[in-house]
Amino acid sequence: MRLTGPLRAVAVVLLVGFTWLLANTLFGGESASSVLHFFSGKRNQAETKPHPRKYKCGLSAPCPPKHLAFRLVSGAANVIGPKICLEDKMLVSSVKNNVGRGLNIALVNGVTGELLETKTFDMWAGDVSDLLKFLRPLHEGTLVFVASFDDAATKLNEESRRLFEELGSTAVKDLAFRDSWVFVGAKGIENKSPFEQRMKNSKSSNKYEGWPESLEMDGCIPLRPPLES
C-alpha cells in the first residue's frame, strides 16, 4: 500500500529527525555542517592538504637534467655523525658505519656521478700526511664532498688548507678547532665553489656545550662533459 501525501511528509520528517539524532550521537554534537561534510564526502582542509613532495636526497625541487642532487649534514657535537647523500644514495652515514672524527670525504666522478671512494681523517689525533696523500693525486674533474665531525681543523697544515683552496674552498683558511664545515669542491675548478658553509665554534653562540650547531646544505651540481682525449 502506498503512503498518501500527508503520511509521506510525516515519514520524511521522522527520517530526517532520526538521521540528525544519529549523526549528533556519532559526531558528539558537532554542527550540522560537519554532518553534511561527512555525507557529502568532504573533509577538513588540514586532512586533505597534500604533503610537500620531496625529491632526491630530500630536496624540495628536482635538479635539472645532467645535474647531481646532493645533501650534506655535518656532525652534531661529537655524538651524531655526518651524512653525505648523492642522487638519493647515502654515501656516508652512521648507519653505514663509515663516519669518523675529523673530515669525512667522498670522492665522486664528476663526469658520470659514480662514487669513487669514501674516507675519514682524524684531525685531532691523526696524521695529516694521510690527508695529503689522499688529496694530492686527485684527477681533473673529481668532485670532493666534505662533512666535518667533532674537530676537523687541529691537524690541518698550510699545504692541506691550500689543497682545499685549490678545490674551491674559501672557508678552509679560517677553519678552526671544532668549527662545523660542509663543502663541495672539484679538482680543476676555475672559480670558488658556491657550495660551502662554516659555523664558527664560539662559546657565546654554540648550540651544544663546546660545539656549534650542525650544518645542512643541499643543491644540484652539474656534471662535467667528458674530457677530450
Automatic annotation (TrEMBL):
Domain ILEI/PANDER: from-to ranges: 101-188
Chief site of localization: secreted
Superkingdom classification of source: Eukaryota
Organism the protein comes from: Astatotilapia calliptera (Eastern happy)
A cellular-component GO term for this protein: extracellular region
Protein name: FAM3 metabolism regulating signaling molecule A
UniProtKB keywords: Disulfide bond, Lectin, Secreted, Signal
GO molecular-function terms, A-Z: carbohydrate binding
Annotated family: Belongs to the FAM3 family.
Subcellular location(s) per record: Secreted
InterPro entries (UniProt xref): FAM3, ILEI/PANDER_dom, ILEI_FAM3C
Pfam family, one: ILEI
